[in-house]
Design a protein that fits this description.
mainly alpha
Amino acid sequence: MIHREISDKKFQVDSLDGLRGFAVLIVVLSHTSNSGMFFVPILDLGGIGKSGVFLFFLLSSFLLTLILLQKGKEILSYSVMSHYWQRRFFRIYPLYTLYLLLAVMSTWFFATALGRSGVGIPFDLNWHGFLSHLFLLEGKDVTWSIAVEFKFYFLLPFLVLTIVFIRSYGYGATVLYFFLLMSLSQIISPQSESLTNDPRLSPYLPIFIVGVFLAVLQDGINRNGLNKIARETLRYSGFLGVFGVIIMTPLVFSLLGKSVPYNYFHKQFILYAICWSLILLSAVNVRGVIQRFFALPLLMYYGALSFSLYLFHPIFIMFVKDAGVNGYFGAWFVLLASTAAAYISFKVLEGPVSKYKMGESSLYNRT
């Protein structure tokens, strides 16, 4: 069993790794269903992929904020920012760059050798598009979420610094600050006006803001602990979050009422953020069914492979569709082949490169 190496053991939470694994499996299940491939007959999970991506956003903002809060007013110092940006760059860009190069070279090969223009693996891409993706200006297929998340990395240190100052005035001031941030986000870029696979950060800010707020709450919990009432509240609110996520599955919602399209809930950023946040807090703080589920070794395994699996699975979906493979067999082939490719990528590239550092500074937690 592989696992992510953590430089600071106090940030190692098995259930969070499992949540990350669960998120990427949601995306794979959704994309295979969207392509008519089902792991189990009639289990059509199309349309839930956005839920998994939103969980990724929430986890990133939660974990990174939790780390930065420990730095206090030194957040923008050279040493802290050097740590922060090395971790973020080496976690994402080496594999992402190779992924984009594969798209560029395969597009050229199909056009010149086979006479098929507009075709590439995982998508068609020219050099202009390569640079646009590299500088986070564009996001084809699953890469839109990478553009969104990396843009958030630029904003987060400044956001956490303001929180460090504001929370010194008490929880009331902190809650008011987050309420104002959420309101401002909806004034600037209402969730209802977002585009499909929008590579801009602004529409998804509510999800990241909720993740930051959760980190502030968790930091307080880590410092002061939980009483019995608070713990039981988190336990049952976690089940409420599970219920909400299940109801927002198009298949389930359609069974309970009128049939809805796959994209029916795709713009419900705030609602998804609330449901996943209830699950996250329960998984981290309460020993019980939810925590045990997300601490399953299989989910933690996929948590370690999540980035590679997220990038690679569309390639195998393309292969299965072009080969005309049976839907049920195709779904399992996509999962197993993507897992194998992700494992190789993790061992050969992600793992070794993520350990690289410049200078004598210690590593940050990998998120």
